[in-house]
Amino acid sequence: METAAPVQRRVPRPRADAVRNRERIVTAAREMFVEFGPDVPLDEIARRAGVGNATVYRNFPDRDALVREVVCSVMDRTSEEAERALAETGDAFEALSRFVHAAADERISALCPMVSSTFDQHHPDLEAAGERIEQLVASLMERARTAGQLRPDVAVGDLMIGVAQLSRPPAGTGCMSLDRFVHRHLQLFLDGLRAPARSTLPGTAATMEDLRQA
Question: Of 20, 24, 188, 211, whose CB is crowded by the most CB atoms within 10 A?
């Protein structure tokens, strides 16, 4: 006697309005985390997103889940910008510059410190987003180095430290009022990365592993 094959049940797709609500929540949370820090009340996030409190909790059972989603979404968008720069920009150093300025626009320096202070840094989603962006930045830097445009004594960690330091202050400390300085100072930093190097850097090139162990 043959056993009937199990019926494959189709997983229902989320409704379009549910997807839009989730996107609105993440966008509102990102804005408010940057402006006020990670402790902003979830009720205020719901109000800015234009949804009810229950909708926020239905999508994100706790604050950690929402912060993690915001950080991952920022890292994903920054990675997408790196991919576009690799694909679209013929000049290797210009592609690297485009990534650096995009990372600042995404407020990556204001949001990423929340990782260590609010939830497990080793969550699979966060690790996957981090590995993706690290590999893409390494590709951008290697292409610029191969083209003779990037000084040879810098690594991915050096670049990410520079972006983080120059696009601060951190979330919740009036960073919006200092926006006009960010891209100016980042461009000065990028000019210092160009080859040929005009000085000898102290110490050794910083890797992402160095940053993780710091």
Answer: 24
- Model pLDDT for residues 27-69, shown as the tens digit of each residue: 999 888 888 877 889 999 999 999 999 999 999 998 888 988 9
* DSSP for 5-35, written as a single string: PPP-PPPPPPPHHHHHHHHHHHHHHHHHHHH
d(CA 56, CA 42): 8
**Cβ atoms of residues 41 and 95 within 8 Å:** no
Q: How far apart are CA 50 and CA 86, in angstroms?
A: 37
How high is the pLDDT of residue 8? 52
Quote the CA–CA distance of 153 and 211 in Å, as a whole number. 17
Q: Is the pLDDT of residue 113 over 80?
A: no
Instruction: Say if residue 41 is preceded by a cis peptide, omega within 30 of 0.
Output: no
Paired tokens of 194: 């160009």
Q: Which two tokens stand for residue 171?
A: 């979330």
Closest CA to 134 of 196, 205, 82, 56: 82
Q: What is the mean pLDDT of residues 189-203?
A: 92
Long-range contacts of 202-207 (CB under 8 A, 24+ apart): 205/153, 205/154, 205/155, 205/157, 205/158, 206/155, 206/156, 206/157, 206/158, 206/161, 207/155, 207/156, 207/157
pLDDT of residue 1: 44
